[in-house]
Prior knowledge:
By secondary structure, this protein is mainly beta. The protein has helices at residues 32-35, 42-48, 166-171, 189-200, and strands spanning 15-16, 21-22, 28-31, 54-61, 70-77, 81-82, 85-86, 101-107, 109-116, 122-128, 132-135, 139-145, 151-158, 175-180, 183-188. The relative contact order is 0.18.
Amino acid sequence: MTHLVEPTRQGVLHYEPTTAAIERRAPAERRLRDVQAIFADRLACQSLLTTNPLIYRVTQVEDHNGEGDIHYGIGMLMPGKVGREYFMTKGHIHAWRPAAEVYIGLRGRGMMLLEDERTGECLAVELTANSTVYVPGYTAHRTVNVGDEPLVYWGVLSSAAGHDYGAVAERNFRLVVVEKDGQPVVMERVDFLAELQGAQA
Length: 201
């Protein structure tokens, strides 16, 4: 005989990929005012703060915290730019540094910045619908939307991983993703800042 069990007791939850909503879970929203420090172009940021647009929304599921358990969440990063910089997440590294994470693209066109804390190596990889990105341990990561529709993705990680936003906030990422001739271009932050200073001089 088969017995039906309340789905959530077995870890079954329904989600809406167009809004990054998960049933009975409250999403966390980040508007420009919440993340303004991550953008290099301070003048463009100040100008856009008058409308304070939604940058991204994340809904997390962190129900299970035992040894071997996992957490997961769905993110929706809006399209748009602050000056020439594409909308992006704050980015983080895991509090438990060896923890890896997998991102699964559902919709849109984006990139991920990956920066190894130990070596300083930084690279940009694509995150698009029907693709995955593996984020190794000891690696800070940030998501960037380079398309014209919301970028929607899952993140799956160890329940022991935790999030360290402070380490990233102190130094930011070495690379930025900016628009040039209508296309996303990856640049060193220092070079982009020099361009901005030259344009504003």
